[in-house]
C-alpha cells in the first residue's frame, strides 16, 4: 500500500474472545477447557424453555417474520416497549424514540461512531470492552475514565467523575453500566441521581447500558434511567441476549430520552439513525418475539428462577474466596459475573503453576515470556494447568490486576469445584516464587 490505511486504535485486544484462541490450542492438545470467559448462559447449560421455543415456532409460520423490518424496528414492538417505559411514570417516550440494532455491539459502535472525534464519553474503570474499544477507536486516543473502587464494593468515585467532567471540556457524555460488567456492582438510586445531576450541571448527555437491568439479587435495588433522567438528554441501551436468554439473536435497542429538548443532541441522534439506514434494518424475527415472550405467563417465573440460581452461585463463590490470602472479592449482586482482585504487589514475573504436559507447558511458557500484564500471566498459567478459562481484569482497561469469571454453570457441584480449584491455584501461584 502507498501509505498506512489502518485507523490507529488503543492497542487493546478484545480478550473475552481472544483468549478462545489460546484455549482452543489447549483443547487440541487434549485439555478439557472450562469456559468462564464469556457471558453466554446457553453455552453454560441453560435450557431454553419449551414455551419460549413454541412462541418462536409459531412466529416462523408467519411470512412477515422473514421480511425486512422498518429501519427503526418493528412498529408493534416499539409501541410495546415505549408503553412499558411510560407506565413507570418517569420519562415519557414514543415508539419513534426507540431504534433497534443487530445486538448492542452494533448499537454501541453506532453511538460512538456518530460522535465528533474531538468529543469524548467518560466511562467507568474497569469497563466493558465493547464500549471501551468503540469509544477509543472513534477518537484514536486513550479514554477518559472514572474509577470503580474494589475496596468500597466497586462503587464509582463520583467526586473524581465530576472533577474530570469539569476540567476536560472534550467530555460530552457519561457512560454508566448498571448492573456493571465486569464487576457485578448494582448502582443505588442515590448514586445514579448524582450522576444525572452532574450531566445536567455540565450540559452533558448520558449513555446507560442496562443489559442486565432485570438481573439483580442479594437484596439490592436499582432504578432504570427513565425513572430519574428528568430533562437531561440520554440514551438507554437494552437487549434480550441475557434476559431471555437469547444471545444469538443479536437484538438490542436504544431508548432515546429528551432529544427534542436539545438541538445538538437531536442532530447526534439523527446521525445515528442515518448510519442505521445504510444497513436497511435489523433482524426481524427476534423483534417480533419480544412482546410475545415478555407477555407470556411463564416469562417472569422463568426469569425469577434464573436470578435465584445466579444469586446462589454468587454466594457460593463469595463464601469460598472471601477469606483467601492475596486476593479481594466483593459479593456479586447483579449481572452474572464475579471479579477477583489481586492485592497490591503480590504478582510478579517469576510465579508459575506446574503443567504436566510438555507441549502445553512449552506453549504457555512462550506466551508468558512476552511482556504481558501480571494478571494475564496468571490467567495463562491457570488455563494451562487446570483448563479454567477466565478473563484478566486489566483487559477491561484498568491497572488493577485480577480476573473475571461467570456465575452461569447450571451444575452447582461442578461450579463449586471450579471455584475451589481457583482458590487453590491462586495461593499456589502466588507462593510459587517464594
Please outline what is shown here.
41% of the residues lie in helices and 14% in strands.
The total of beta strands comes to 14
Count of domains: 2
Query: Unreliable segments (pLDDT under 50, ≥5 consecutive)?
Result: none
CATH topology of the largest domain: Aspartate Aminotransferase, domain 2
| Rg, nearest Å | 22 Å
The total of helices stands at: 14
- The H-and-E topology, N to C, reads as HEHHEHEHEEHEHEHEEHHHEEHHEEEH
Helix content: 40-55%
Broad CATH class of the largest domain = Alpha Beta
- CATH architectural grouping of the largest domain: 3-Layer(aba) Sandwich
Instruction: Assign an overall shape.
Output: globular
Secondary structure category: alpha/beta
Kindly state the mean pLDDT as a whole number? 94
The CATH superfamily of the largest domain is Type I PLP-dependent aspartate aminotransferase-like (Major domain)
Largest sheet: 8 strands, mixed
What proportion strand? 5-15%
Distance between the ends: 51 Å
Main β-sheet, spatial strand arrangement: 2-9-8-7-6-3-4-5
Written overview of the protein:
Helix 3 runs parallel beside helix 10 (284-294) and helix 12 packs antiparallel against helix 13 (374-386). The chain has helices at residues 15-28, 50-59, 75-87, 104-113, 129-139, 158-167, 189-201, 225-228, 263-277, 284-294, 299-321, 358-369, 374-386, 412-431, and strands at residues 34-35, 98-101, 120-125, 145-149, 155-156, 171-177, 205-209, 234-239, 252-257, 327-329, 337-342, 388-389, 391-392, 402-406. It starts with 14 loop residues before the first helix and ends with a helix. The model has no long low-confidence stretch (mean pLDDT 94). The chain has two domains: 15-46 and 300-431, Aspartate Aminotransferase, domain 1 (Alpha-Beta Complex), CATH 3.90.1150; 64-294, Type I PLP-dependent aspartate aminotransferase-like (Major domain) (Aspartate Aminotransferase, domain 2, 3-Layer(aba) Sandwich), CATH 3.40.640.10. With 434 residues, the protein is α/β, with parallel strands linked by helices. The strands form three sheets. The chain has an eight-stranded mixed beta sheet, with helices on both faces. 41% of the residues lie in helices and 14% in strands.
Amino acid at each position: 500500500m502507498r501509505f498506512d490505511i489502518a485507523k490507529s486504535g488503543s492497542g487493546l485486544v478484545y480478550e473475552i474472545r481472544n483468549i478462545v484462541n489460546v484455549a482452543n490450542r489447549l483443547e487440541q492438545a487434549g485439555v478439557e477447557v472450562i469456559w468462564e470467559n464469556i457471558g453466554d448462559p446457553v453455552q453454560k447449560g441453560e435450557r431454553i424453555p419449551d414455551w419460549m421455543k413454541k412462541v418462536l415456532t409459531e412466529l416462523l409460520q408467519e411470512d412477515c417474520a422473514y421480511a425486512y423490518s422498518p429501519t427503526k424496528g418493528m412498529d408493534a414492538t416499539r409501541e410495546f416497549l415505549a408503553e412499558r417505559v411510560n407506565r413507570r411514570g418517569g420519562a415519557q417516550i414514543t415508539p419513534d424514540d426507540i431504534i433497534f440494532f443487530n445486538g448492542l455491539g452494533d448499537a454501541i459502535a453506532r453511538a460512538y461512531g456518530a460522535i465528533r472525534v474531538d468529543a469524548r464519553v467518560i466511562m467507568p474503570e474497569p469497563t466493558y470492552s465493547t464500549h471501551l474499544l468503540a469509544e477509543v477507536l472513534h477518537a484514536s486516543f486513550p479514554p477518559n475514565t472514572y474509577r470503580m473502587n474494589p475496596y468500597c464494593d466497586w462503587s464509582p468515585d463520583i467526586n473524581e467523575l465530576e472533577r474530570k467532567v469539569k476540567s476536560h471540556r472534550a467530555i460530552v457524555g457519561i457512560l454508566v453500566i448498571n448492573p456493571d460488567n465486569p464487576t457485578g456492582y448494582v448502582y443505588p438510586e442515590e448514586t445514579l441521581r448524582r450522576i444525572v445531576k452532574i450531566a445536567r450541571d455540565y450540559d452533558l448527555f448520558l449513555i446507560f447500558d442496562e443489559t442486565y437491568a432485570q438481573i439483580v439479587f442479594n437484596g439490592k435495588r436499582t432504578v432504570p434511567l427513565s425513572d430519574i433522567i428528568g430533562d437531561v438528554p440520554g440514551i438507554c441501551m437494552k437487549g434480550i441476549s441475557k434476559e431471555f436468554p437469547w444471545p444469538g439473536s443479536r437484538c438490542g435497542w436504544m431508548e432515546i430520552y429528551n432529544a427534542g429538548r436539545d438541538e445538538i443532541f437531536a442532530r447526534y441522534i439523527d446521525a445515528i439513525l442515518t448510519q442505521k439506514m445504510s444497513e436497511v434494518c435489523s433482524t426481524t424475527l427476534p423483534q417480533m418475539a419480544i412482546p410475545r415472550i415478555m407477555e407470556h405467563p411463564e416469562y417472569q417465573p422463568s426469569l425469577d428462577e434464573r436470578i435465584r440460581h445466579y444469586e446462589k452461585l454468587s454466594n457460593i463463590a463469595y463464601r469460598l474466596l472471601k477469606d483467601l490470602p492475596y486476593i479481594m472479592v466483593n459479593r456479586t449482586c447483579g449481572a452474572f459475573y464475579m471479579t477477583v482482585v489481586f492485592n497490591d504487589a503480590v504478582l510478579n514475573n517469576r510465579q508459575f503453576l506446574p503443567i504436566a504436559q510438555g507441549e502445553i507447558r512449552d506453549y504457555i511458557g512462550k506466551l508468558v515470556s512476552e511482556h504481558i500484564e501480571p494478571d494475564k500471566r496468571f490467567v495463562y498459567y491457570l488455563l494451562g494447568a487446570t483448563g479454567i478459562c477466565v478473563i484478566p481484569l486489566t483487559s477491561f482497561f484498568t491497572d488493577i490486576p485480577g480476573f473475571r469469571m461467570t456465575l452461569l454453570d447450571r451444575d452447582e457441584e461442578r461450579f463449586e469445584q471450579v471455584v475451589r480449584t481457583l482458590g487453590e491455584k491462586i495461593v499456589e501461584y502466588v507462593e510459587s516464587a517464594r
